[in-house]
Design a protein that fits this description.
2 copies of one chain form a homodimer. Chain A is α+β, with helices and mostly antiparallel strands. Chain A has one domain: Arc Repressor Mutant, subunit A, CATH 1.10.10. Chain A contains 5 helices and 3 strands, in the order H-H-E-H-H-E-E-H. In chain A, strands 1-3-2 form a 3-stranded antiparallel beta sheet. In chain A, 30% of the residues are buried. Chain A binds a DNA duplex (30 and 30 nucleotides) through helix 4.
Chain lengths: 110, 110
Amino acid sequence: MGITKTEIFTDEQNRLAIQLKAIAHPARIAILQELIKANACVCGDLVGELGLAQATISQHLKELKNAGLIQGTIEGVNVCYCIEPTAWKNLQDELNGLFSSYQCGNQNCC
Amino acid sequence: MGITKTEIFTDEQNRLAIQLKAIAHPARIAILQELIKANACVCGDLVGELGLAQATISQHLKELKNAGLIQGTIEGVNVCYCIEPTAWKNLQDELNGLFSSYQCGNQNCC
DNA sequence: ATATTCAATCGCAATATTGCGATTGAATAA
DNA sequence: TTATTCAATCGCAATATTGCGATTGAATAT
């Protein structure tokens, strides 16, 4: 490859990139929306709602969890997933910062 | 691979995923921040600011442009890049919708 | 004409990702 | 015990991505 040169970027830029990468897949967006709607889900619920195989959903859940965006707690036989409130809020704030830092100097942008 | 099953997701989910994917790289976050700060940049400016090769910057600019997040206008010898205001606003709104749709039912999330 | 100076594209090697079937593991049910 | 039912992991084939050197192309200098 060309390994991404993380060392030349700030921690914030690297963290933000990792979390956005985790969200940047339609299946994971759908999973997050379903988790928000239902408040909490086990893997099987999501397999039922979306049209993907159990192994695939499980992989996506793992990636979202690795990025810290969701949490999973064992609930009897199942693992119950839900949004990780702190990370969610942090990401929301950081994105808000990025997006609102742009004030269109309208007509003469270029 | 397993080709992403775009057909089972909504257009909004697919569009959002594509645009987030474009942002989900520290170099591209840095490029966007620099474009916002400077209002507009040519490729060479960014090569100077970030520590990446010209070819690499050019690739990243292309991806951001493909995603519709930036626009490039020819300015004499150079191409001048800046944020595409409409897409930027749209993405901001969609992200805001996604993030604010979550109201933490706090303690008993899982 | 030749050199310079940009941005864009090509080509490539080194991974990373995606989706899924198959397997494993853990917990309960019969 | 044996069967069932979950989630997680492994392994794999088919791409996709990343970074960069090298090349190309276009525009201006000398």
